[in-house]
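Support case: user asked for a sample of complex input and structure output to validate their parser. Sending the pair below.
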Amino acid sequence: MADASYPDELLYHPEHDWARIDPEGPDPAHPEATLGITWYAQDALGEVVFFEAPAVGTLLVQGAPYAEVESVKAVSDVVAPLSGEVVAVNDALADSPQLINEDSYGEGWLVRIALSDPAERDGLLDAEAYSATLGG
Amino acid sequence: MRRTALFDRHVAAGARLVEFAGWEMPVQYEGVRAEHMSVREHVGMFDVSHMGEIETSGPQALELLQRLISNDLSKVPIGGAQYGLLCREDGGVLDDLFTYRLAADRWLTVTNAANHARDLEWWHAHAGELHEARVDDRIDEYAMLAVQGPRARGLVQEISDAPLPPRMTAATLRLAGSEMLVCGTGYTGEDGVELLLSPADAPALWDELARRGATPAGLAARDTLRLEACYHLYGNDLCTERGPIEAGLGWCCAEDTGFIGSGAVRAVREAGPEEKLVAFAIDGAGIARQGNPIAGGGVVTSGTLSPCLGIGVGLAYVPAERAAVGTRLEIDVRGKMRPALVREKPFYRRPEPLAA
């Protein structure tokens, strides 16, 4: 939470979401990805107090909101960086939403999806390009 | 955008700064929850220099204020403070404000930042025929700090040359070498003081308070604190489209003074309001926000997570017949219906009663 960071191994959506594509998923034709919000997003929100996960089986569409993350002061849509079906949600966030602040790329992950169109990844940004969108 | 005299201190403390009513203000430093709890458990300090000040003076000052402000200022002794409303002829609320009586015919009224220019115009417009009432804009002459929390008075007393004024009174004292108006008022539900001083003296005072352990707190914590205490926020819970009785502020309306809007206020008081401002808490998860509609009529005007209670709380206007404590509400929170309960005000009351 303390310092800005944008890990090189992740892909980024300009709406401040990250995706970690798992190259060794159960089905190589439909790789899985873990999704979350970036350091910038959690910092802008402040202390997260509520995250309501979508149900397993929900279909996400790239660029469309799929959940809400809420801080004391504000609520913000979470946008899907990639399309796919939710195969797992981070249940720990129900009791400990602050994990999104404390470890936004690790324990604070939001959902895991099976990608419906792996080629969509080509439209995402790498860490350097995403950082550049944040300005000074 | 305007900056307060403490802008550099906020930057140095790592504050997140936001635009608020034309001012660049600190919304939070370390985090709203930590700042909130500092005020509840120890002592926090807020830069509220964006708030405006209007001085009304002269032999007809009281006459002018009695026309403008809803409460009865003739009851305020020299050194006293009183809360009241500024209303339109139709009873719509233009502002809520504290007025301090500095001398027999000298009064200082603190305005909300967003309303200051409009308030000042209103003052001047109604001062017209009262030739012996003088109206002066004092916004540039004052910085304002709120020091709040169970340790606030003790901490401020350490740097004061005289005993602090009791609650709801004000006195000119020297603090850390600078003269200022010390007021026993606040907006957090805790004991504490508000300090009105020359902007040039504000940074040194801020540093001295910080050295003695006051935690800087931002506008975000100010909002969660006031909401737990069920204090109204102008622009949320008060507006020109609603009157004092609907807002539950009949206690600060003295219709017999004939203030502007008193006729409308009297009529609503006698007939009973169609809607009332209630405090509510959400059952389970979810936080209602300003603008969320309520099933069967009504709207949320303020909503947040209560850091002390750990649940979503807020204020809402509902039809009068559904305003009783214990009434069940369904609030439409961005398309999801959240059950809520009308609760007693306030959500938070400080543990020990004050020796006033």
